[in-house]
Amino acid sequence: MEYVIIAFLWLAILLYLVLGGADFGAGIIELFSTSTTRSRTRKAAYQAIGPIWEANHMWLIIAVVILFVGFPVIYSTMSTYLHIPLVVMLLGITARGTAFVFRNYDAVVDDMQRVYNRIFLYSSFITPLFLGIIAGSAVSGRINPDAHTFLSAYVFDWLNWFSVAIGLFTVALCGFLASVYLIGETNIDEDQRSFIRKAKIWNAIAVVCGALVFTAAHAEGIPLFKWILGNTVGLTSVIAASLSLVLMWFLISKRKTIVPRMLAGFQASMILLAISWVHFPDFLIMQNGEHLSLFKHQAPNATMNALAWALLIGSLFIIPALFYLYYSFQKDRFVEKGEGR
Predict the structure, then answer these.
(1) Sign of the dihedral defined by the CA atoms of residues 130, 4, 312, 261, in that order
(2) What is the domain range of residue 56?
(3) In terms of pTM, does the model score above 0.85?
(4) What CA–CA distances, in Å, run from 307 to 57, 77, 300, 317?
(5) 262 lies in a domain?
(6) Which residues form a coiled coil (predicted)?
(7) Are the C-beta atoms of residues 254 and 264 closer than 8 Å to each other?
(8) Is residue 255 part of a domain?
(9) In the chain, how many domains are there?
(10) Does the residue 60 lie in any domain?
(11) In a domain, 36, yes or no
(12) Over the stretch 140-176, which tens digit does the pLDDT of each residue have?
């Protein structure tokens, strides 16, 4: 049953990265859009994420519940030593969701709309930034359980070049995912060209941020090259992501939209696979050399069995309902535009 739980955990993290990341990315590309294209970007993003934006956080909730119930030692360690970035990330999610509702559904249109808009845009950037920082901190080996000062115990374990670089790369990846997804959310030729340009820009930014991650890893003595390229799975994942990127841009040039979306999600999954495979089953790497493992640091068997059955049975209800939710809000636009595949 432990493999079932681990599979659900990995899938929840992946889906939050792909779906929630595109959700955050919609605000990110709006934040960095010019004044002439910002309103059209906002309209397309609202049409895309408006009906289903809240459902994306379900995957984060599932991941948190799995860690809390199935791997309490890992959960408590992260909650203790990374509580600052975790709190910032959760505040960002809360502020973003609140601002999204008020800026789109507030009955009174006044100057507060500008405040709501700024909160939405800045929290769209801050939230994935700290999500990436948390992920980088988990594998950086900077968490110090033997620290005797507040800064060394709760700040320097996440406030370092490698973790921040991972955070910036996460932001760039979210912007890229959103740009690719939004190409198919409009049938206006000018808007499609605009989102294609944005996708190219964020693709380039992601490459630069990726190079920054490797540079920071080298500077801090983290063997990232070995982690990703030193095994068959990691190397294959990188090659597959690169080849799919070429295919994606070819299809976009032909004005196809559905398959490029899938390929963009596939690229994100390959990135996650490459970095997680080499550490499996370890989830946290500590400064003292201790590794918190999904096998060694799990709940009692009775708890794991109950959790696995809850996930399996719950998925029978949640997954079909989620697919129907997406289908309900997308089918009319696909039929109307004669969506290419």
Answers:
(1) positive
(2) 2-221+280-337
(3) yes
(4) 20, 21, 11, 16
(5) no
(6) none
(7) no
(8) no
(9) 1
(10) yes
(11) yes
(12) 989 999 888 999 999 999 999 999 999 999 999 999 9
